[in-house]
Amino acid sequence: MMFQKGDIVKASLNPVRGHEQGEYRPMLVMNSVPLPGDVNIILPITSKQKSYPLEVEMDDRTITQGVVLCFQIRTLDLASRGAKFIEKAPSDIVEQCNDYLHRLTDDIT
After folding, report:
1. N or C: which end of the chain has fewer CB within 10 A?
2. What is the CATH number for 65?
């Protein structure tokens, strides 16, 4: 299954190392074009808000609750992880996450 930017899906993030988010959890797909190897750029969603910079809070427009961790950028082969589509995120939440990603990667050369 091909996932699109703004899709909220659930899959396992394991294995992990250090402070990476893990376990079976919701995540927000952030790429708008297919990437080589059918991988997707994702941002994990956690139910434990810690008021870190670069968190985007989900609201009552979605079944999925919690915060998107925009600093925990991952690329995953969602199909091989058995990802399941949950819902579409509101466009303003996706755009706020997109803005944070641009800020994070702006100085990378």
Report:
1. C
2. 2.30.30.110
